[in-house]
Specification:
Blueprint (H helix, E strand, L loop, with lengths): L13 E3 L2 E2 L16 E3 L11 E3 L3 H14 L3 H7 L2 H7 L7 H10 L2 H4 L1
Antiparallel strand pairs: 1-2, 3-4
């Protein structure tokens, strides 16, 4: 899995100032849950309420936004994000520009999703 997404000029796409976006090499390797309740680790969600019911569309989006924006670990993507679900909700996610560009640069199919 690619830990940093680089542009053609070698500059990283940033999730936030000083933090490169983390992007999966393939969507197929993203095998996160598609149902149930997920509790994010504190490093990804600082709020006391860190549990998300994936049956609730708003909670699912909120969880994906937090993981994609905050992760610094490729493993977080593999265990928390589901590739098919990501493709389905991609356009609805409220993401920093750097995160969106990093993912769409690596996974061109997301642009059309």
């Amino acid at each position: 899995m690619q830990a940093v997404s680089l542009t053609a000029t070698g500059v990283a796409f940033l999730a936030r100032p000083g933090r490169p976006a983390v992007v999966a090499r393939t969507l197929a390797e993203l095998a996160g849950p598609t149902r149930g309740v997920v509790e994010l680790p504190v490093r990804l969600m600082w709020n006391a309420e860190r549990t998300f019911d994936l049956a609730d569309p708003d909670q699912l989006l909120w969880m994906y936004e937090n993981v994609l924006r905050e992760t610094t670990r490729p493993e977080d993507l593999r265990v928390l994000i589901n590739g098919r679900t990501l493709r389905r909700v991609w356009r609805s996610l409220n993401l920093p520009r750097g995160v969106r560009l990093a993912w769409e640069s690596r996974h061109r199919g997301l642009r059309a999703a």
